[in-house]
Write a structure and sequence with these properties.
1 helix; 192 residues; 2% helix; mainly beta
Length: 192
């Protein structure tokens, strides 16, 4: 977490915060709250070649957080999504809108977005994501992705390096265009 935080960039405006400890009641955890506007912010690696760290650059929006959770209402007109090792290049995102929230639950953390939209590399779409993170168990991802692509072959540079054997040659060099007018991907999978 500290390594990732050390990669933060961008402007923070209107930062308001509070932090409180409870010395009289040592069983009660410290509390905090913060609110800020982010301008052209990012976190994570700028290139994928350096290390396995991933991240995003070029995000603006409102951030609020406390010890029990938080939310980010973000948008961007020019962002870069840097994926972890296994991908060769960052994805340039022409437009992004996202409402992301996280909350501490009895068994860990829940990260959720029901309203993430993007436009990038000839594609556009919407994502709904729910990620359950609990100690001692693999994180559980529930993802629904609905997207369209004018020319899906343009996505080839952004596919994983270790792509399924049957799809490594996709799209075939003789295929000039691939149109995905309305594709749906739904995943419910443990990440281990």
């Amino acid at each position: 977490a500290l390594r990732l935080a050390s990669t933060a960039v961008g402007d923070v405006q209107g930062l308001e915060g509070r932090y409180a400890t409870h010395p009289a009641d040592s069983a009660k955890p410290s509390s905090y709250a913060l609110h800020a506007r982010l301008v052209n912010a990012g976190i994570g690696a700028i290139t994928v070649i350096e290390d396995s760290l991933s991240g995003v650059q070029g995000i603006s929006g409102e951030l609020s957080a406390e010890e029990y959770g938080g939310k980010l209402d973000a948008h961007s007109e020019a962002a870069n999504l840097v994926l972890p090792r296994g991908f060769t290049t960052a994805i340039p995102v022409e437009a992004l809108g996202a409402k992301l929230d996280w909350q501490r639950q009895a068994g860990g953390w829940r990260v959720h977005t029901g309203d993430l939209s993007w436009r990038a590399s000839g594609t556009h779409g919407m994502v709904s994501l729910d990620l359950q993170i609990a100690p001692e168990t693999p994180p559980l991802l529930d993802l629904k992705l609905n997207f369209s692509a004018r020319h899906a072959a343009l996505l080839k540079p952004y596919l994983p390096l270790h792509w399924c054997y049957h799809l490594q040659g996709w799209p075939h060099p003789r295929i000039l265009a691939v149109l995905l007018s309305d594709a749906l991907l739904s995943l419910h999978v443990p990440l281990s």
